[in-house]
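Subject line: Sequence and fold of a protein, written as structure tokens
Area: Proteins and the way their chains fold up in space.
Start of record: The labelled sequence and token lines come straight after this line.
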Amino acid sequence: MIYIIPKPTDTPGDNSTSMVMDALTKMGEPYKVLDLSSVDPFNLPVTDATIWACGIKQDGVQFELLQALELENRVINSTKAIAACASKVVTTARLFNIGAPSPATCFTNDRKVLQKFVDEHDGRAVYKPVYGFDGNGIYMFHSADEVKEEPPFYVQECVKNDRDFRIFVIGNKAVGAIQRVSDHLTHNIHQGGCGTAIEIPKEMAE
């Protein structure tokens, strides 16, 4: 049995949970919805099952509950992977570590360092929350004074583009891809981007 944890930020126009359910139905795979908020970590409701976490709330509680479920179940994605992806700092560090192309990035709690980074990158940069989702809180700025958030600051050089790509990997193998297109800074579906399934670009598959 597969248990589905719905993504809390799904919308009618971007409902990844429904897409997962539709795919499982077409494959004839049975599933049930698991309400993560109702889980007692000391008396798990399911064991020896596959749990597909389409998303969780970043509330300091649901991640802990998912870790408890992982003690006796197979959780997809693993909590280790979720933790890495949740932090833009860790994600970026991993990209740099393997030599993957990535925009110049600065992570600091010093506004002077922040301003120096902006000055070194054509007088502009992109601010992103370290922990964020769906493109929320991302904006371009030209001076450290424009950044009203408290440190630490995670910022990247502004790379002009009209799309981004998401490559889906299972067991170290690229199995699918989408591109998201928009005419503004963020290409997230929740920010008005248009997502389309595409063939996996060869250079990205490798």
User: Anything to note?
Assistant: Residues 16-27 form the longest helix (12 residues).
